[in-house]
Amino acid sequence: MNLTGKMLIGGQAVAGSREAVQAIDPATGKLLEPAYPGGTGEQVEQACALAWAAFDRYRETSLAVRAHFLETIADEIEALGDELVERAVVESGLPRARIQGERSRTCGQLRTFARTVRAGEWLDVRVDTAQPERQLLPRADLRQRHVPLGPVAVFGASNFPLAFSVAGGDTASALAAGCPVIVKAHGAHPGTSELVGHAVARAVAKCELPEGVFSLLFGSGREVGIALVSDPRIKAVGFTGSRSGGIALCQAAQARPEPIPVYAEMSSINPVFLFPAALQARAEALAQGFVASLTQGAGQFCTNPGLVIALQGPDLDRFNAAAADAVQRSSAQTMLTPGIFDAYQTGVGALASHARPVAAGLSTEGPNQCQPRLFMTTARDFLANSALQTEVFGAASLIVQCANGEEIRQVAEHLEGQLTATLHLDDGDLQAARALLPTLERKAGRLLVNGWPTGVEVCDAMVHGGPFPATSDARSTSVGTAAIQRFLRPVCYQGFPDSLLPAALRHGNPLQLRRLLDGQREA
Ligand code: NAP
């Protein structure tokens, strides 16, 4: 397919007329054709009007039709073949194997949501049958199901050009819930976005759904993004990116006459606690695992281990020496965008002015090269300087040496909200780990033992969320099937005749759902 530089409003390819976004090959610094002129206010309105017009029909599609739609999107993405992989590689600087893996994850995620939709558990049907004879007051027949919120604005993430972009996790979960989606493409990978956008639009047409179920807009966040979030027909927002961007969208959503939820995943440094027995038994192996996790994908993961916390002493010295050695042997890697590279350099500079540099990776000629970095500080300095817990997006990490267990507890307590917290422990560490858990449960969405936080499984039990600033709403996850719940709300139907009830709630349970019937779960 020839890239056109056009948006998709419903099924129509339409050219914008505002300032254009244009991808840059971060490995060479060269501009990539075509340019993508930004959408106008009227074009944002058009997409919202179409999404609103599509909503009532799309939200009442059968479970089978909606699941088939999600599977068709996955098929259409796979049918794009190598063209998609090549464009995503050149726009992101990520290796081909990574992009191929991300395509599998994207399609797998769409198919997982199809399975979720078919199972119907997300409807969370509850039935309390009428008790006309009840003393003192009779009870009416009461039935609850979940309905979708309405059209959702999705902001594609820079660091997952497929799995968290146009047809990524936010889009898949919103479409699964029954919400039309309007994507504001990330300016770093517009060509990839156009290709995937056409795949989604083809699936909409093949499944004979209303065209407003999906639109794709290009343009700046401050213009197109804010116009989208401010439109009264948009009822929720999905976002992954910077803390400042997420906060700006939350403020725009709260300033509306009708405020709406924003599910923004923003900033996390993912603390890793090394307990004494584990450190004594395998300091060098832990250092290898840590540096592999830190440098994966040039550290451009929201779950990158940006903080290591342990008791000072000879075992931590062994860990530090092995980690420094591994970092020094690590190659530089191309970062996603010049902006992200500049932010990394600034962040590393700030760390260097507050903490002791321990090691730097190999440097490479060429633009936008992330040189891995390791720093060290004491618990006392960490507690005194909040700049030390600012996320540095990239392969940089800080080791915090603590004088005793009480300092470890204070450091944990001092942390902002996190996506993950990791504990490396042996049997001899269980008591100390148990004592830290209540604090870590308050701080993070996912707690790991003897693993590394990078690599987020898409499954039913996953939580990719956490208290602010990890996300703007700690009650939810943006990865895994529970992500569908962000875009749903409960409605109760009281005293309805059977013929007026939605199918999910009818007597006789025609959809064969596992309902909660008079307090008992149906088999
Ligand atoms: P970003 O700057 O937050 O941009 C993400 C999206 O939000 C873009 O579409 C952007 O539009 C929009 N946006 C940003 N600020 C906005 C505002 N004030 N109002 C309205 N829309 C706004 O993120 P990025 O480009 O991906 O990377 C920049 C930094 O974000 C990185 O250096 C890193 O620190 C952080 N980041 C964190 C994660 C994570 O998972 N924790 C992931 C990616 C990035 P424009 O196209 O106009 O910019």
TrEMBL record:
Catalytic activity reported: 2,5-dioxopentanoate + NAD(+) + H2O = 2-oxoglutarate + NADH + 2 H(+); 2,5-dioxopentanoate + NADP(+) + H2O = 2-oxoglutarate + NADPH + 2 H(+)
Gene3D superfamilies reported in the protein's UniProt record: Aldehyde Dehydrogenase, Chain A, domain 1 (3.40.605.10), Aldehyde Dehydrogenase, Chain A, domain 2 (3.40.309.10)
Domain Aldehyde dehydrogenase: 17-458
UniProt keyword annotation of Metal-binding present: no
Enzyme Commission code: 1.2.1.26
GO molecular function, one term: 2,5-dioxovalerate dehydrogenase (NADP+) activity
Enzyme class name: oxidoreductase
Coiled-coil ranges per UniProt: none
Record InterPro entries: Ald_DH/histidinol_DH, Ald_DH_C, Ald_DH_N, Aldehyde_DH_dom, Aldehyde_DH_Superfamily, ALDH_KGSADH
Record keywords, A-Z: Oxidoreductase
Family under the similarity heading: Belongs to the aldehyde dehydrogenase family.
Protein name: 2,5-dioxovalerate dehydrogenase
UniProt organism field: Pseudogulbenkiania ferrooxidans 2002
